[in-house]
Structure formats: C-alpha cells, structure tokens
Specification:
Length: 141
Amino acid sequence: MYLKKRELKRLVSNIQDLESKTNCELRIHIDKRLNTSNSLYEAKRVFKKYKMYETKERNGILLYIAIRINQIAIFEDIGLSKILSEDFLRQSIDKVMPKFKAGKYCNAIEEIIEIIAPKVIQAYPKTSENQNELSNEISFT
C-alpha cells in the first residue's frame, strides 16, 4: 500500500478541515492501476462517476492521484474553473512533484490542498446553508 491507514485518515481530516471553511466539495481519488499517461482524462471520468457535478454551486474539485505513473491531475467543476486556472493548477502540481516522486504521497497531497485552499475559500466561503454534498472518504481504483 502506498499510503498507510493513518495517512489516509490525515487526508480525510484535511478534506474535512477545508470543507469546514468553504462551500466547495473536495474528493481525493487514488488510482493504483493506471499505467497510461492520460491522468486528466481519467480524472474527468472519475469526476463524472462520482457525480461531483451535482453540487449546488457546481464547485466540486477532484485530486486524482495516479500512483503507478507518478502523476497528479486536478479536475474542477464549472464554478471553480475561473478561480483555479490551468496555469495555477499546473504550477501547484509541479511544486509538489518532488515530494510525490520521492514517495511522500501524503505530504504532497496535503501541500496541494494547502496551495488551493486560499483561492477556494475566498471564492466560496462557508455559509450557514453549507451542506456536505459529497463523501469525504478517499476513493480508489
């Protein structure tokens, strides 16, 4: 296993912490089998599979982790596409890749969450109407 149980719990805690400050919905998906280089395509597929587009404000974000090929893809819904530009997301991924490639998967994922959090919180601050619309559990293939 690439991530220990305690690290998975830490990541779920990171999701819960972020979602306590914003109306956005974050999901982490870890793919242990992907062996092609099209992780963004797979991220879009997983986004649709889990119906992440069904949030009230269309502000779901998926961190797709392709462990076998050392790739990270971030796919965001329409509500976040202007806030999280393609360049910003690419730079965020590039920043954490040294940790990721060194096998420090949990640290790399946590750092990406820390990088995107301020933009997401500013764009979609938590409101009293905030509901947890999507599961906070990490999904796997």
